[in-house]
């Protein structure tokens, strides 16, 4: 059995050994429309409340799977909202377009057998075509050999300060993609979005 979860902090990855398994983690990333980065927190925050989303050309990976949630994706979504409820936070609303981006990334990780945040700016840019957002963040994880892989992924995120911060952050939309490859490995991607009209800035 193995599991892993990954984040980035100033593009530097750390290797950690956790209870006889291998995990790669440091902290998760979040980006707003203007791409400014706070090295102190690992969070990217807008320098202006009126900044427009950055538009640029890129190859946008499209999921080959229908964006309707699978059972495992739905269970993961429910667990995240249950955790938020335990912290007296409002639930996240699932969005099919965000889930399509999350699943496309999980599909790529599952094919490559490599857990990464590569392409997150492109995923965020694609989301910005239909959702004007103030802030975005992403958690990824993988595991295999567990009867309830979603529980292992969520627990890993809860135990990691950066990932837990994304789970409990002032977001209102989310998308989730979970894909299993031929080796039996499960790859998870969850994208968090705070819409630009979000009134109370909790940062």
Description:
The chain is α+β, with helices and mostly antiparallel strands and 203 residues long. Helices cover 30% and strands 24% of the residues. The chain is built from five helices and eight strands, in the order ββββαβααβααββ. The chain has helices spanning 71-86, 96-112, 120-128, 149-159, 161-167; strands at residues 2-6, 15-18, 21-24, 29-31, 93-94, 133-144, 173-180, 186-195. Strands 1, 4, 5, 6, 7 and 8 form a six-stranded mixed sheet that branches. A two-stranded antiparallel sheet has the order 2-3. Strand 7 and strand 8 form a beta hairpin. Helix 1 runs parallel beside helix 4 and helix 4 (149-159) crosses helix 5. The longest helix is centred in the middle third of the chain and has 17 residues, at 96-112. The protein is globular. The termini are far apart. The model is unreliable at 7-66 (pLDDT under 50).
């Amino acid at each position: 059995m193995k599991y892993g979860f990954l984040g980035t902090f100033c593009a530097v990855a750390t290797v950690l050994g956790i209870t006889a398994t291998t995990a790669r983690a440091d902290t998760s990333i979040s980006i707003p429309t203007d791409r400014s980065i706070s090295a102190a927190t690992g969070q990217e925050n807008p320098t202006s409340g009126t900044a427009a989303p950055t538009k640029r050309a890129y190859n946008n990976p499209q999921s080959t799977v229908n964006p309707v949630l699978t059972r495992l994706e739905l269970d993961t979504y429910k667990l995240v909202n249950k955790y938020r409820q335990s912290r007296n936070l409002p639930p996240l609303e699932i969005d099919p377009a965000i889930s399509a981006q999350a699943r496309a990334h999980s599909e790529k990780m599952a094919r490559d057998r490599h857990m990464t945040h590569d392409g997150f700016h492109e995923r965020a840019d694609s989301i910005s075509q239909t959702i004007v957002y103030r802030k975005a963040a992403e958690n990824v994880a993988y595991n295999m050999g567990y009867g309830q892989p979603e529980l292992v992924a969520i627990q890993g995120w809860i135990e990691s300060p950066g990932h837990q911060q994304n789970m409990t952050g002032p977001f209102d939309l989310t998308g989730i993609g979970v894909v299993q490859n031929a080796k039996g490995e499960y790859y998870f991607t969850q994208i968090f979005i705070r819409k630009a009209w979000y009134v109370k800035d909790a940062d």
